Structure formats: structure tokens, C-alpha cells
Amino acid sequence: SNNFFLLAGPCAIEGEEMALRIAEKVVEITNKLEIPYVFKGSFKKANRSRIDSFTGMGDEKALKILRKVSETFEIPTITDIHEISDAKMAAEYVDILQIPAFLVRQTDLVVAAAETGKVVNLKKGQFMSPESMKHAVTKVTDCNNEQVMVTDRGTMFGYQDMIVDFRGIPTMREFAPTVLDVTHSLQQPNQSSGVTGGRPEMIETIARAGIVNKVDGLFIETHFDPANAKSDGANMLDLNYLEKLLGNLVAIRKTVNSL
Amino acid sequence: SNNFFLLAGPCAIEGEEMALRIAEKVVEITNKLEIPYVFKGSFKKANRSRIDSFTGMGDEKALKILRKVSETFEIPTITDIHEISDAKMAAEYVDILQIPAFLVRQTDLVVAAAETGKVVNLKKGQFMSPESMKHAVTKVTDCNNEQVMVTDRGTMFGYQDMIVDFRGIPTMREFAPTVLDVTHSLQQPNQSSGVTGGRPEMIETIARAGIVNKVDGLFIETHFDPANAKSDGANMLDLNYLEKLLGNLVAIRKTVNSL
Amino acid sequence: SNNFFLLAGPCAIEGEEMALRIAEKVVEITNKLEIPYVFKGSFKKANRSRIDSFTGMGDEKALKILRKVSETFEIPTITDIHEISDAKMAAEYVDILQIPAFLVRQTDLVVAAAETGKVVNLKKGQFMSPESMKHAVTKVTDCNNEQVMVTDRGTMFGYQDMIVDFRGIPTMREFAPTVLDVTHSLQQPNQSSGVTGGRPEMIETIARAGIVNKVDGLFIETHFDPANAKSDGANMLDLNYLEKLLGNLVAIRKTVNSL
Amino acid sequence: SNNFFLLAGPCAIEGEEMALRIAEKVVEITNKLEIPYVFKGSFKKANRSRIDSFTGMGDEKALKILRKVSETFEIPTITDIHEISDAKMAAEYVDILQIPAFLVRQTDLVVAAAETGKVVNLKKGQFMSPESMKHAVTKVTDCNNEQVMVTDRGTMFGYQDMIVDFRGIPTMREFAPTVLDVTHSLQQPNQSSGVTGGRPEMIETIARAGIVNKVDGLFIETHFDPANAKSDGANMLDLNYLEKLLGNLVAIRKTVNSL
User: Between C50, C85, C106, which is nearest B47 by CB?
Assistant: First the structure.
């Protein structure tokens, strides 16, 4: 099919039951809508604002849950890595290695991911232009790994706001499949509380603008109970709204594909 | 119909023949596509970067051309005003008075426009948030003129670039019909030459993202020969591409309206 | 002397007694510190966020107060103009005509000011680069008026904050005497209340950084009772702190002049 | 004394002779001016724009050069770390561990640095507000390490420019000694070439604005031959200009200290 794909899941893996329940629900929706689906979960959170923030339940344990999700539903999985040594370890469990936005300029880390032979998803730094992501992509392809994609997660706009520059979608699609991360694009960083805020009511606005411009994939963090998620709750999509959202987006994409 | 409307024309009125030719072509296209059309032309350009830039062919003469376009094709017209005294004069010739982005904080000017009883189109300052446009709208409605709309023309992003914040569309639609100015949103200001640059290849990207988010109208400057237009040539749409662009947008809007 | 000069006063002229009291106090301080002083007062405020904001006590009356301040203390005065017709009128009463930041791209207004033969103070738009102010300066000198200066009042940084780019001071000093407006540089615009906020505790930080980089003049709005000023109270300097501030700045400038 | 301190050196350690020659020259100057001096050199460069950029001469070898510089001139040294495992290794050779701006949100890395007991220098992310650095500082002090300082290296301003927000100096000095990195604050990132540009002619402008606002230290990359430095050449200070620059700054600081 000619549909967009979906990277979705909770932000962090909080436990096996939670992961399986979320995956099951998303699989059901994406099967119905014929959306290729990749389950996303972080096996640790290394870049929290405050030291008392939740940082994960333990590396190996979380990676095993990712594998179990993959085997149970026969879907690929993606996780993010933060240290060179994470690359090899995570590559044994998941299909796509993601380089976080803050770390996309760390050449050693990108190369370590590329050398696993897995697909590499490079998040655009909040401080980077769409054009400059070409250099990050080249770091992967220079390792003889052509399986690389990029993800826009918004750009710094003043201290406490982010903006999505939709000119970046056609720009980045010229050198790699491009994903739009609607969850993190709506962050409101640098809040005085030390907890990142968000504007989840704008998820569909941002998602539509991407889909209508032929973005290849969407990245959405979703949870049955965003208010109680252990991280990124401020921007997560309530799983109960996912089907309606994706249904709208599929209809729009079909029209776009027909033009 | 439930379609978007179009404000379009050359940037400045350069002559009667040119204005009529452009209007004729756009009328033909918009009739076919059932898009309500308003002819746009500036009767003077007061805010050029350099003193040697073209500033118009003479107020009265240009306004008369606007009226002639209106009568010839039975379409409404819009022009922008820069001084309080412009309001009354222009109101005798056109249907919509537009307050330029740089001037939208000039209370006296907004009030003068409002008091003519004409429709007032308030452009969002490059330096203003979508939310703050509510105060500008209130200045019009406080004059007992409910016919007010707002137009986003992009927001400053560093010295030499602009960005469109699509969160602004649902935000501003809560208090007024909202137009997206795809021409000026793609400006690249503060170039060392003193001539504003642009990225016209991104017109459809920006327009689609607006249409899919239910923007009420589009503002497009167009010309048979953008390279030789006397102002804003860098971002104008070649009139030969307008029909294809609008056709795509109408198809997208139909799908959106059906969701 | 080789000292910086000072443009200072209340934001708007609220009454004769108030104006004379403020001028008297500032004259006393600047005489002691050998700082050339220009009294600043707006005869109307045309660009308020909300229509119910104070917009002035009446043009002619306020201009006469400016002249009275000038004659009483034998000091020059400055006021800002918003319409072409203001230029001639204000030029009969004051020594320097100021073009507000929002209006500095209005060629007709700049030319009208230049043609009075008075000194013209061009405020840098919040949306303009320091380099691009060269074009505004040229509009004045092209009218055979060489008496032109520029004033930095900060640059947009996200929707609700401003930033001073100190690289702009040496840049703009290459084409005109340059003033740093410490009051408006600290504005926090686009607040949801419709009333601009501020960070007056940063006045000395910003002023010092300008003085140490040889800015030619400072612009400071000051009032005996900032909390009750009719406009811009959020950033005004309490007049009781002015002497200490200026004393520090003069000491720093003396050292800089000796390097 | 009450003077500011200096972190300075080449960007990357390119070889022993080069390091010793630079250190010798800076020691001579800072001794004369009574400026406490810390030699700075990166033992590897992990975050280059392009994979073919120079990334260092080898970890252990470069760290030994840092130690040799320290022993030869009896001065402390600083280097930056990029992986958790770097912390322990580098701590055996240097006195201050620096967390790069892109990595300052990586909790594990900050904690690893803190737990060595060495002084930790946290660079402010280009995407962070001065206020939000408080959370980074707390991550260090929560490890019972009170020896922490922060360094401003500019803030993203559009895609291809950076800006220094001097309000950040008093803000950050409230929770930690604050350094101003004049070299990286003048970067011009995201250039189409993949090589970061710069504006070294603005070094003294930025440095003066920091010194006059009581910044505790300055960070300057310097080289006998910036054009041929293997990284960051675009913003490095030619070592021949260092004495004149520092002399001016010391004079200014003395005046400031006397106020």
C-alpha cells in the first residue's frame, strides 16, 4: 500500500503487561486501517530534566519486553540508545535503533548504531535545520548502511516553546524517509517546574499538516492513561483517541495520493 | 459551498491592463473550482526595504483600477492601508480594508478601518503570537464592526527566515475567520541586498498544511511573470501554476469537510 | 566630553507638572555626571495592545509641554511620530523625531521625518537585523538629512520574550550613532493579559553591556512611580535609582575610553 | 584577587608540542595579568557535523598531554567527556570535567562526572534557558559534589545563528559560578557546507559584555594559527591578540569591582 507508517507506543517501557496491552490495541487499529506499525518503547530515559524523574525499569528487562511485544504481535520494534555500548545490546532485541535529538551530533554513537546493520532513525536536533540532517544521514550511509530515516520533533522557538517547520518535510524527504514526531513537537521545554509541558490538543493539527505533505511516517506516544504515564504525559495521546485520529489521517492521505 | 475563499492578485497595482488580465485568469480558475474570489492589489507600497523600491503608481489611479476590476468581474476587492486618512479614501473603492502586519498594533489605524464599516483584514504581525491577535480583533468589534478576519503571514525565526506556526490556525479561528498568506509566509527578510528573498517552491507545502487544518481563506500573490513583478517577485506564484495548486487544495478540503 | 548621552523621560506625557518634575530631577543628575541629556516623552501612544489602554492626553497640549520642558531646562527634546502629518507638527516643538520600531519600514513616514530637517531617531524593528537598519538610515540621508541615529530596542525571541543582540552595536555604529533602549529591550510581549510584561531588574545588566561596547546613547524610561505610570510601567526605572545606575555607567565608560 | 578566571587552549589536543607552546604563551600572559588560568583541550571530538571531520588523536595519548601541561606549568586542566566511561578515565588526568552543551540533559553522564569528585563544568544547551540550568546543577550537587559551574555558549537564534542572552549571567550566578564561552557563542551553525561558521571579530564585544556583568570566568579557544586549527577555526582567537584582549577586560573588571 501507499500509506504512511506509524511508530507508536508508550514513552518508556513501564512493565510487560502495560506494553502488551498498548501494543494489542494499536495493532488492532492499524490492522483495520492498513497502517504498517512499529512498536516504540524506550528501555531507559537518560535525558530527564531532573534527577528524580523516572529513568526506566532496567535495561535488559525492558529490552526483553520489547522482544516479547515483537514476537507476540509479529511487528517490528524501535528503541532509542544513548551510549555507544547500547547499540550492540539493543540491536539484539529491536529492529530500529533511534538516535535521540540531543545526541544526533555524536558521531561515535551514530556510527555505532549504523554498524549494527539495523535501521537507524535519526531524530533532528531541536537546534538543527532540516538541511543539516543530511550530514547525519551521510554518517550512516558512509558505514554502508542504507537503512536510515530521519524524524522531525520540532525546533526551538524561544526558551519555552517549539515549532514545526513544515518546509523541512520535503527538504528531508530528498535524502531519507521522513517521520513526524507529533508528540515531542508539541513540547514546551524549560518550564520553571523542571517538568516539560505540552499542548496535546494540537496533535491532530500537526499530524494533518505532515500527512498532507507526504511525510512517510508518524511518531506518536500514546498511553491508556497519559496523566499517569511516567514520562512525557503532557503530550501523549490518549489511546482512546488514536483510532479516530488515524482514520482521519488515512482518508487525507488517500486523497493526497490520488492527486 | 463549504470551500475556502481566495484573496489573490498582483502585489501592487502596476497598471489597468495587467490588473484586468490577472483578474480574468483567476476568475476563470476560481469559477471552475467554486472558490469564492476576492481580487487583491495594493494601491501603494509604503514599507519597502529601500527608498528606491517601487512604491506604486499613484493612489487614486490605482484605487480606480481596483473598482474597475470589481465591476468588470463582479467580484469583491481588497487593498491595504497605511495611514488613517487612507481608510476613508480606500473604503470608497474596495470591499475589504487590510491592515499590514507591521501596522496591526496601530490602534488609530485599526479603528479608522473599522469605522468605515467595511470588512477589516488584520494581518498578524511577524512579532505577534496567534493568541495576541485577539486584542487586535477586539479593537474592530469594539467599533461595532463584526466583519473582521485575521491573516497569518508567518512569524520571525532568526533574522533572515520566517516560519508558519500552524498551531495558530485553530487558535485564531476561535475568534475570527482566518486566512493563510502563503506568499509572505515564505519571505526571507533582512537579506544583505535590501531585497527580501523567498522560497516559492514551498508554496504548496504551506498551503496544504493550512487547508487541511480548515483555514478559511488563502492569500496568494500571483503574476504572469513573477520575475518581473515590481515587488515581492521572490515569493509570487506564477499564474500558470495556480489552477493545478488550487485543484489539489480543493480536493483536500473536500476530504477534510467529509471527516 | 566623551561620555554617552541620555534619552530619558516618562513614556507618555501625562501632564505638565509630572513632566517638569521628572525633567528637573534628571537634569540635576545628568549635570552632575556630565551626561548630555535629551528629554523624551510621547505625545500620543498609537500602538497599544488593547483599545482601552491610555493613548495620551491630546496632541497639541502634550507637544506644548515638551516645548516648556525644553525652554525651562534648556535641553533638547524627543518625541515619536506615527503618521506622516505628525512629522511637521511635532517638528515645531521638539528637536528629535523618533520613528517607532513597528513603523521603521514605513518609507513615507521616515521620509516625512527626514524632510523636517530635524534629527531622526530610527528604532530598530523587533523583526529586523542590525545590518538591515542601514537601509532605513539611507532613506534619511537620501533626503539630504545627515542627522540620523538608530536605537536598538531588542529583538523578538519566541512569542513572549525579547533579546538584545550586542553584536548589533558595533554593526550599527558603522553607519550611525547608536542608542540602546534598555526599557523596551526588556519587554515581554504577547502576554495573555494583553498587557506587556517586563524584567526591570535586568536594566543595569543590559545597560552595562551596551556602555562597555561604546554605545553612543542610552534610552531609559523613568518615572517617580513606575507602578502607576500610564504605560510601560512594567519596565520603567524608578527615578530614585537613576543616579546610582548612571554613576556606575559613567565610571565604566571612562575606563573603556582609556583603553 | 577578585579577577575573573580563564579557561583557554586549543579546541582539540592536536599534539604535545602544540599544547605546550600554547600553554606557555597563555601562562605568561595570565601571570602578568593575575588571571587564574585553566588549560583547556578536548581529548576527542565526538560531535562533529561531518564524519570526515577531525575527531582527535587518540584518547589516552591526548589525556597524557593534558597531564604534562598541568605538571609543566603547575596549572589545572579541563577536558570534555561524551560517554559515561570517559568520566573515570579523564578524571585521572584532569581537574575539571566538562559536559558538552548537547549532552547536558544526559543525566547518567552528569552523574558519572559528579561522582568522580572532580569539578564539573556544565555547558548550557543551545536549546536551554538560563533558568533551566538550575536542574542540571542540582544533578551534580545531589551527588554530594558541590564543585559545579555552568558555562553559557550561546542560544539558538534561527537555524544559522546564535545569540548570547546576557540576562542569563546574573540568573545563573545565583546558583553556580558562571563562565562565558566567547568562542562557541559566536558560532554560526547549520551552514550548508557542513562546517560551522563564526564571527571572531565579535569576540571582544561579547567578552566585554560578560566581564562588565561580573561573569566569573571566560572560555576562549585560541591557537597560534586559527586558520589551520583542526576544529573550530572559524571562531578561535589568534593567540597574538589574547594579551591585548585580556588586558582590556582586566581594566574593565577592576572598575566594576570598585563600584
Answer: C106
Q: How far is it, in rounded angstroms, from Cα C197 to Cα C209? A: 22
- pLDDT band of residue D241 (cuts 50, 70, 90) is very high
The complex's ipTM works out to 0.93
Question: Under an 8 A CB cutoff, do D213 and C213 touch?
Answer: no
Nearest residue of C to residue B189, measured between CA atoms? C128
Closest CA of chain D from C29, distance in Å: 18
| Tally of structural domains, chain B | 1
User: Measured between CB atoms, does A156 come within 8 Å of chain D?
Assistant: yes
Do D230 and D16 touch, CB atoms closer than 8 A? Answer: no
Q: How far apart are CA D105 and CA A29, in angstroms?
A: 35
CA distances from D236 to D12, D165, D233 (A): 12, 21, 5
Taking the Cβ of residue D192 and every Cβ of chain B, the question of whether any pair is shorter than 8 Å is answered with no
Q: Best residue in A128, A157, A160, A167 to probe B by mutation, most B CBs within 10 Å?
A: A167
Which chain C residue lies closest to A188 (C-alpha atoms)? C158
| Cα B58-B60-B62 angle, rounded to 5 deg | 65
The cell for C116 is 523636517
D9 beta partners:
D221
Provide the domain limits for residue B76: 5-258
pLDDT at D227 over 90: no
pLDDT bracket for residue A229 (50, 70, 90)? confident
Q: What is the DSSP letter of B140?
A: H
DSSP assigned state of C74? T
E strands, D209-254, are 217-223, 237-238
- Mutation for testing the D interface, residue in C173, C187, C205, C244 having most D CBs under 10 Å: C205
Cα–chain-centroid distance for residue C47? 15
Q: D160 — contact with chain B (CB < 8 Å)? A: yes
Distance CA D69, CA D78 (A): 11
Amino acid in the structure at residue D11: C
Closest residue on chain C to D256 (Cα): C252
| Cα-only R_g, chain A | 17
Q: Confidence band (pLDDT; 50, 70, 90) for D199?
A: confident
State in Å, rounded, how far the first CA of chain D is from the last one: 16
What CATH number has the domain bearing residue C92?
Answer: 3.20.20.70
pLDDT for B56 equals: 56
In this predicted model, which residue has the larger pLDDT, B229 or A199? A199
Instruction: Look at residue D54 and tell me whether its pLDDT is greater than 60.
Output: no
Contact B194 C105 (CB under 8 A): no
- Contacts B158 to D, Cβ<8 Å: 157-161
* DSSP string covering B195-252: S-EE-GGGHHHHHHHHHTTT-SEEEEEEES-GGG-SS-TTTPEEGGGHHHHHHHHHHH
Count how many Cα atoms sit within 13 Å of the Cα of residue A22 in the half-sphere of its side chain.
35
Most C CBs within 10 Å: which of A126, A155, A161, as the mutation test of the C interface?
Answer: A161
Is residue C168 within 8 A of residue C140, CB to CB? The reply is no
**Does the beta-carbon distance from A157 to B163 stay under 8 Å?**
yes
The shortest C-alpha distance from A196 to chain B (Å) reads 18
Instruction: Give the residue among C195, C33, A76, D31 at the shortest CA–CA distance from B132.
Output: C195
Chain D residues touching B189 at Cβ < 8 A:
none
Q: D122, D110 in Cβ contact below 8 A? A: yes
Contacts of B161 in chain D (CB under 8 A): 158-159
The torsion angles phi and psi of B98, rounded to 5 degrees, stand at -110, 135
